[in-house]
Design goal:
Blueprint: H1 17-26, E1 38-43, E2 49-55, E3 66-71, H2 81-91, E4 96-101, H3 123-135, E5 140-146, H4 148-159, E6 166-172, H5 178-185, H6 192-209, H7 211-214, H8 217-223, H9 227-232, H10 236-247, H11 253-260, E7 273-278, H12 290-298, E8 302-307, H13 328-373, H14 379-396
Parallel strand pairs: 3-4, 3-5, 5-6, 6-7, 7-8
Antiparallel strand pairs: 1-2, 2-4
Amino acid sequence: MVPGVLYIPTRLWGFSGHIQTIIHSIVGRVKCPWPLGERVYLALTDGSTLTYDLYQPLITTVEDDITVAICPGIGNSSESVYIRTFVHYAQCHGYRCAVLNHIGVLDSVQVTSSRIFTYGHTDDYSAMINSLLKKYPTTNIVSVGFSLGGNLISKYLGEAKRPANIIGGVSICQGYNAVVATQWLLKWQNFHRFYLYVLTENVKSIIMKHRHVLLSDDIKQRYQLNERDIAAAATLPELDEAYTRRVHQFPTVKDMYSWSSSLNYLANIQRPMVFVNARDDPLVPDNLLEPVKQFASAHNQTMYVELANGGHLGFYEGGLVYPNPVTWLDRAVVSLIGGIVMSHNDLLVAKRTASSSMLLDYGRARWGLLFAVLPSAAPSVRGVIVAVLKLLLSLFVSKPRVEFTADTPT
C-alpha cells in the first residue's frame, strides 16, 4: 500500500477483480474530464508517423518543472478514458503531461509505414522523450506506464543509457514476462481465454482498420503475410505468428516475446522505480509477480506495491454501487510521482552539501600549507592573507539551498 493513500474498493462489486477489469474495459472512468492539449506529430526514420498529446499544468504554484511521460496500455491512446482522468488529475497537481499515442490506434492519424505498435519496441517512446527534451531542456521527467505501457517504460529504462532528465518511473499492472503470461492466458480456467480473445480482437481490429497500408500487396509479398491467417487468428500468439513477428523479423514468436519482456532488463535500470500490481488481476497471475518482488527486495531504488483488490487497471473506490470519479490508482500514482520528485531533490541537496564539505576541507588544507610557509616574524602580513582567503572562500563556497516541492495529496 502507498503510505497515506488508503484503498477502500466500491462496496458492492469492488472486491471482484473480474468486475473491476470488465468495468474498466467498458466504462473506463465515471464523469471523465476531457483535458485540452496539443497534438505533436513526429516523422520517424522508418517512415512511421508518431503522435503524442501534450498537456500543460493547470496550476503554476509548483516550483519544480516536472513532465509526466505516459505510455498507455495495449491499443490505448490519449483519448482513452482512464488516461484522460489521470492526465487531468496530474495537471491539477502542477504536472505537465505527455501521452504517447500508439501507432495505429487513433482513427484520425493514418498509418504511413508497414507497422503498428508492438509489445517491446521502445523507439516510439524514446522519440517522444527526445522531442520533450527539445521543447523543455531543463524539465525533469517521470515515466509512467499502464499495463503494456508499464512493460515498455521498464524496458526503455533498462535496455540502454537514457537522458539524465528522467528521474524515475512508475509501472502499473504489467506482466513482466510475455512468454509465461501468454502460456497462462491460453488456459481456459477463470475466463483467461476470454480476456485473451478480447486483446486479440483489439489488436486485429487495428491491423484491419489500416489494412490498405499494412496489408498492401507489396507489404504482404515483402514479409510473406497471409491476410486470411491474420483474420482467422483467435489468440495473440496466432496473430503474432501470422503478422507481428514477420513484420519485425523475429525467427519465432517465443523469441519476440522473450525480447519484449521487461523482466530481462530490470537489473540495468539506474533510476528509482515503483511497480504496482493487484493480486486479483485476471490478466497477471501470481507467479508473474514473484520475480519483481524479489527484484524490489534486493534493490533499494525499487519499490513494489501490491494490493489485494483492484483488478486490471480498475482500482475503483468509494460508494456502495457508484464509485468515485477519481480512482485510488490516480491518487496513488500522483503521490508516487511526488515522492520521486522529493527524493530527487533530497539527493541534489545531499550532493551539494557533500561538495561544499569537500571544498571546505580543501580550503582548510590549503590554509594549513600557507601558514606553514608564512614567516612567523610577519604577523601583519599573515593577518591580511587570512582575511583575503576567507573572503575568496565565501565567494566560491555557497551554502546548500534546500528545495521544497508542493505537498503530495493523500
